[in-house]
Amino acid sequence: MGNRLTQIATRTGDDGTTGLGDGTRVAKDHLRVQAMGDVDELNSLLGLLLCEPLPDALRVLLVAVQHELFNLGGELSIPGYTLLKDEAVAALDDALAEHNAALPRLKEFILPAGTRSASIAHLGRTVARRAERAVVALANAEPGAVRSAPRQYLNRLSDLLFVLARVLNRANLDGLGGDDVYWRSPRLETPD
């Protein structure tokens, strides 16, 4: 693994470059740096979600996800290095199956709304999708440089965050939710 930070203000990035975990320097707008930044943003957003009232099981799950996202970011920062294990993707599949089973079938598209915690989970879902797009762009630009597990993990995580938003609306821990907020389309509405 690369060097641990001993100071934050190094000023080495003043020229528009940043160091990767293997010591190489790349432009700050490099696709790898974009992917790393999107994963970091997602992890930070989950940290915000963890500040909300949450069921204990979801809190444990989200903390584990934060650790895996840190692994994913580390893997992206060190080309050719593997930190995110395939078991992490399988764990998300298990969590998806468990939480989806307890939810009613969707009747229509839902809005990213409801309780504050559900809305933060929806925001996390959109950032996960952006991070996934960044990882895909990096993989397309550098064939063979990105394993499939990071892409799969972000894909599953965005799905899981959608499901967790629905779970959190039903948990109604802040008293402002209780159910999904369905999209009302004039085209789909039936006359009285």
UniProtKB/TrEMBL annotation:
Family the UniProt entry places it in: Belongs to the Cob(I)alamin adenosyltransferase family.
GO molecular function list: ATP binding; corrinoid adenosyltransferase activity
Keywords assigned: ATP-binding, Cobalamin biosynthesis, Nucleotide-binding, Transferase
Taxonomic classification: Bacteria, Pseudomonadati, Pseudomonadota, Betaproteobacteria, Burkholderiales
Residues in Cobalamin adenosyltransferase-like domain copies: 8-167
Descriptive protein name: Cobalamin adenosyltransferase
GO BP terms: cobalamin biosynthetic process
Region (Disordered): 1-21
The enzyme's E.C. designation: 2.5.1.-
Domain of life: Bacteria
Pfam families: Cob_adeno_trans
Catalytic activity line of the entry: 2 cob(II)alamin + AH2 + 2 ATP = 2 adenosylcob(III)alamin + 2 triphosphate + A + 2 H(+)
UniProt xrefs under NCBIfam families: PduO_Nterm (TIGR00636)
Leading EC class: transferase
